[in-house]
Amino acid sequence: MASTQPVVSIAGLNKWFGEFHVLRDIDLNVGAGERIVICGPSGSGKSTLIRCINALEDFQEGQITVDGIELGPRLSRVDDVRREVGMVFQSFNLFPHLTVLENCTLAPIWVRHMSKKDAEASAMKYLERVRIPEKAGSYPGQLSGGQQQRVAIARALTMKPKVMLFDEPTSALDPEMVKEVLDTMVDLADEGMTMLVVTHEMGFARQVADRIVFMDAGQIIEVNKPQAFFDAPQHERTKLFLGQIL
Ligand code: ADP
Ligand code: MG
Fold first, then answer.
1. pTM reported for the whole predicted model
2. Contact, 160 vs 124, CB < 8 A?
3. Is 203 in the pocket of ligand 1 (CB under 6 A)?
4. C-alpha to C-alpha distance for 190 and 133, rounded to whole angstroms
């Protein structure tokens, strides 16, 4: 893996919201097939960081490279980067007036210029992968939260992204639906998808993460393999955080 280019490379990233310095000197490389879990207290900048990778936020200093495409502070090549990145949000963000299948074919047809027939065949494949093909003709409002989130994952996959970003994908779900979504994400990890996941699901982190990134106050405080992270956290702030959530 050392010889291959990172899929995501973040170097010297700094971002301000007005006067507020929200991301401070962030450096992070994510290798092909690597699974990174990002955790940290509320307001520490986790969402802002992964939104920068998808060019949903601008930034003032540094460089982000996704699959060789450079995204500098002027956010050139936004569309190129977004084509390579799949994103799943806390609130599923499906289009309510479109069926599940239509939600999953919209971008392949309009962005990838696939034919409707090919896009539908491909979307059905991804709906089968998230184990929900029978809901293809339903509307999002007719689905449970867990089902909607699995559709959101399938929808992102239809674009064949190089990396998948998840921002607290299970935190808006009723407890009984968390597992089905985490299981889907575990499947994705097993298939070798490169993933950056913001989550407080520490069982998932232990099981799936290659490395865990702990953020506080806009900085990366600690990066470690799960076992070391949980069993021997290096920094006081990490210990405090783990003490609160475990
Ligand atoms: P996290 O995801 O770790 O909870 P966020 O990245 O959402 O943290 O937010 C980090 C900080 O930036 C918080 O203090 C938040 O209030 C602030 N923030 C987030 N979005 C904006 C915005 N659009 N304008 C100003 N401040 C923001
Ligand atoms: Mg957040």
1. 0.95
2. no
3. no
4. 21
- 3 state SS of 72: coil
> From the CB of 95, is ligand 1 less than 6 Å away?
no
- Residues 39-72 have pLDDT tens digits of 999 999 999 999 999 999 999 999 999 999 999 8
| Closest to 216 in 3D by CA, of 18, 71, 24 | 24
3-state secondary structure of 133: helix
> How many degrees, rounded to 5, is the angle at CA 25 between CA 232 and CA 52?
100
Tell me the per-residue pLDDT of 182-201, one tens digit each, with 9 for 90 and over: 999 999 999 999 999 999 99
The angle that helices 175-190 and 145-157 make with each other, rounded to 10 degrees, is: 20
Distance CA 107, CA 114 (A): 9
CA distance 211 to 31: 11
Question: How large is the ipTM?
Answer: 0.98
What distance in Å separates the CA atoms of residue 126 and residue 104, rounded to the nearest whole number?
9
Distance (Å) from CA 214 to ligand 1 centroid: 16
Q: C-alpha 240: how far from its chain's center? A: 25
The alpha carbon torsion through 35, 40, 44, 50 (nearest 10 deg) reads: 10
User: Distance (Å, rounded) from C-alpha 210 to C-alpha 232?
Assistant: 16
The residue nearest atom 16 of ligand 1, judged by CA position, is 43
Q: Which residue has the tokens 């490379």?
A: 9
Q: Which SS3 state, helix, strand or coil, does residue 7 take? A: coil
